[in-house]
Structure formats: C-alpha cells, structure tokens
From TrEMBL:
PANTHER family: MARR FAMILY REGULATORY PROTEIN, TRANSCRIPTIONAL REGULATOR, MARR FAMILY. PROSITE patterns: HTH_MARR_2. InterPro entries: HTH_MarR-typ, MarR/SlyA-like, WH-like_DNA-bd_sf, WH_DNA-bd_sf. Residues 4-147 form the HTH marR-type domain. It comes from Streptomyces griseoloalbus. It holds the Pfam family MarR_2. Signal peptide: none annotated. This is MarR family winged helix-turn-helix transcriptional regulator. It comes from the Bacteria.
Length: 160
C-alpha cells in the first residue's frame, strides 16, 4: 500500500471513530439534557471565552469556535436563548455586534454534561477494543484523554 493510500485509510478510520463517538455523545446529551452536540460545544466555547478573561463573546467568535456558518450560529444562539442558557445584547462599543453571555443554568448544564461526554468516549473506546480496532488509533484515543479516562479504559479487559 502506498503512503498516500495508507494516509487515506487511516483518515477514514479516524473519521468513522469520530462519528461513532459524536453519535454516542449526541444520544447522551439529548437523553439527559435535551441538548445536541453543537449546542453543548457552543456553551463550552462560550465558557472558554469567559475563562480566558474576555467575559463576553461576539457572534462571529462563537461561529469560529464551533466551526458553524454565521447563519447556523444565529439559529443556534436563538435555541440557546429560548432555553435560558445564554443572554445576548448589542455590543456597547460596536452597535453592529452581538455580545453573548452564559446564564447560571448554562454553567449547570456544562457541569452535568462534561461527564456525559467522557462516558460516551469511554463506551466507544471499550467497544473499539473488543472489535480489535487499529491499535495505533486506540493508543492515540487513550493517550489523548485525561488520565482518569485513559487509565480506566486501559484497565478494561479485552472481552472476546
């Protein structure tokens, strides 16, 4: 197999695993919090902006942080507002810009949702181990997780 073909094969494997993990995340978030992955990622992006000391994020920043288009981000913001997770207002220094802030409810959702994401990743990685997925990919997934998760996943027996 050529290097190009190998790279494409590895990329396809990674993409399939990413889709499985994201689908599992979607199920967990929807079941427990009534949110989709995009909504949760948006809250995390906003939270990271607050943690970085900016306090507020502009709509364009949120679009860049989530990888969504401006129009998709606008629809997302409307959904988050309707659920009481964010507030928006016109920027004081630029009347054309919208500033976005998280509500207390959003912080609760983030606190409850983060373990759900970890659980989803752990479940998929365990399944991949059973399926005897590409060992390099598994090593990458386990090494990229927090110590608690990677330790937990590595200690799982390989069920046959």
């Amino acid at each position: 197999m050529s290097d190009d073909a190998r790279l494409i094969t590895q990329w396809n494997r990674l993409t399939r695993v990413h889709r499985r993990i994201e689908a599992r995340m979607e199920r967990h978030l929807h079941r427990h919090l009534g949110l989709g992955v995009s909504e949760f990622y948006a809250l995390r992006t906003l939270s990271e902006g607050v943690a970085a000391g900016t306090g507020l994020l502009y709509l364009s920043d949120l679009a860049n942080g989530t990888g969504l288009s401006q129009s998709a981000t606008s629809r997302l913001v409307t959904r988050l507002q309707e659920r009481g997770l964010i507030t928006t207002h016109t920027a004081s220094n630029d009347r054309r810009s919208i500033e976005i802030e998280l509500t207390a409810v959003a912080y609760d959702v983030l606190r409850l949702g983060s373990p759900l994401l970890s659980q989803a990743v752990e479940e998929v990685v365990r399944q991949l181990r059973v399926e005897e997925t590409d060992k390099d990919l598994l090593r990458y997934l386990c090494g990229g997780m927090s110590d608690g998760v990677s330790t937990h996943v590595r200690q799982e027996p390989n069920v046959r």
